Amino acid sequence: MIDIKILQEAFRSHYSGEGALFSAPGRINLIGEHTDYNGGFVFPGAIDRGITAMIRPNATGKVNLYAVDLHQTCSFDINDAEGPSSTHFRYVYGVVRELTATGIEVKGFDAVYGGDVPLGAGMSSSAALECCFAFALNVLFGGQLDRMALARIGQATEHKYVGVKCGIMDQFASMHGQEGKLMRLDCRSGEYRYFPWHPDGYRLVLVNSCVKHELVGSPYNDRRASCERVAQMAGVETLRDCTWEKLEALKPLLNDEDYRRARYVLGEVDRVMAVSNALERDDYETVGQQMYLTHDGLSRDYEVSCPELDFLVDEARRLGVTGARIMGGGFGGCTINLVKDNLCDHFLKEVQQTYRTKFSIDCKPIPVVIGDGAKQH
Ligand code: GLA
Q1: Is the pLDDT of residue 214 over 90?
Q2: Residue 215: what pLDDT?
Q3: What is the Cα–Cα distance from 225 to 188, expressed in whole angstroms?
Q4: Which of 27, 36, 326 to mutate to test the pocket of ligand 1 (most atoms within 8 A of CB)?
Q5: pLDDT tens-digit series, residues 263-317
Q6: Which distant-in-sequence residues (6+ apart) come within 8 Å of 142 by Cβ?
Q7: Of 62, 110, 220, 253, which is least surrounded by CB within 10 A?
Q8: DSSP-assigned beta bridge partners for residue 334
């Protein structure tokens, strides 16, 4: 998390005095990718990186923001029907509007914020931003929304103000995370369960490909649209309720692309269950195998990979890593790797070298530390 002194100084120089401090994290996801908007399971955990904000109501109708990392300011009126044009500030604007729509009397405030989740890395920097402000404004303006309702405020912000028809995983994880624990969320019922994460002899490490492809825009929404088309033809609400038999029976009626998207989703729902069963018996080899299968599906059937990510996963395979795959929405960002302790240094050194040779880009290893969800400091 960002050094609080930086926020205190920025607050003093932009406004004066101090405000209250809040933070919300990014997330990792062990398995269950693109299953959330299909009513399936996801297996995320919050991380020790996120957005921290210092905020103080200003008794006006104006919101004043300063994003420390971007060195950018933005102001908007609380009743402004359009909002800022910069995507970055629209996350905060959307949260303000959505909270207001629930009946909370959000008033003007001054805020500075910054963080340490790399942007576009598939670690949910945008959910961290939404959740930090949703949590904070709910506290500061006397809202009574619970964490799930606040997560939905973040999701609605993506849908309505940014244009990404995302699922609930990222905001759920940012709100509900607990140190040292992963969570299995059933996105159909909203039920979730915590799984202590202490994989003796193994580590989770992300490798940031450092190539970014924005989720904003069509590729993500196109995947979702394919899934919804197949679900509709199968007569089910979401693909979670589509059986393999039904999908195969529909195959002649589907275009090849939609069929492959659905085949990936059905497989992924099964894989999350296989992983949670394997975790009950500390069987990390099975977890790893399922991660590779997810990557293959995301790359070939769901087509959200890119040469850089495929290369990172192929290298993980070659070097004996237990499991590796794209993490998050795809189109760039990180791979998540389950690696034996004693192999980790060698793997990271080797993959950094071969990646640089192949793409002339430096990839960045990021150790995973499972942290807490949104909170006031
Ligand atoms: C993005 C979205 C999530 C989820 C993942 C893919 O992170 O915000 O809702 O769909 O992609 O699993």
Answers
A1: no
A2: 55
A3: 18
A4: 36
A5: 999 999 999 999 999 999 999 999 999 999 999 999 999 999 999 999 999 999 9
A6: 104, 105
A7: 253
A8: 208
Report the alpha-carbon angle 18-22-27, nearest 5: 150
CA-based R_g, the chain, Å = 21
pTM for the model stands at 0.97
List, chain by chain if needed, residues with CB within 6 Å of any ligand 1 atom: 33-34, 36-37, 124, 166-167, 169-170, 328-329
Phi, psi values for residue 224, rounded to 5°: -65, -40
Least confident of 129-143, 206-220, 224-238, 344-358: 206-220
pLDDT tens-digit map of 17-53 = 999 999 999 999 999 999 999 999 999 999 999 999 9
Record the tokens describing residue 347, joined without a space. 């793997």
Reported as a single tens digit per residue, the pLDDT across 84-100 is 999 899 999 999 999 99
Task: Choose among 44, 33, 34, 31: nearest CA to 228.
Answer: 34
CA of 205 to the centre of ligand 1 (A): 19
- Give yes or no for a contact between 223 and 261, defined as CB atoms under 8 angstroms apart: yes
Residue with tokens 């849908």, as numbered in its chain:
159
Ligand 1 atom at minimal distance to the Cα of residue 122: 7
27 and 171 Cβ atoms separated by less than 8 Å: no
- How far is Cα 338 from Cα 24, in angstroms, rounded to an integer? 25
Tokens of 262: 């659905």
Q: Distance between CA 153 and CA 103 in Å, rounded?
A: 13
pLDDT tens, position by position, 339-349: 999 999 999 99
Report which of 93, 101, 97, 105 is spatially closest to residue 67, judged by C-alpha positions.
93
Q: Treating both helix axes as pointing N-terminal to C-terminal, what angle do 125-140 and 87-101 enclose, rounded to 10 degrees?
A: 40
pLDDT confidence of residue 106 = 98
Q: Are 205 and 339 spatial neighbours (Cβ–Cβ below 8 Å)?
A: yes
Distance CA 71, CA 67 (A): 6
Local structure of 118: helix, strand or coil = coil
Helices 169-176/147-157 angle, 10° precision? 140
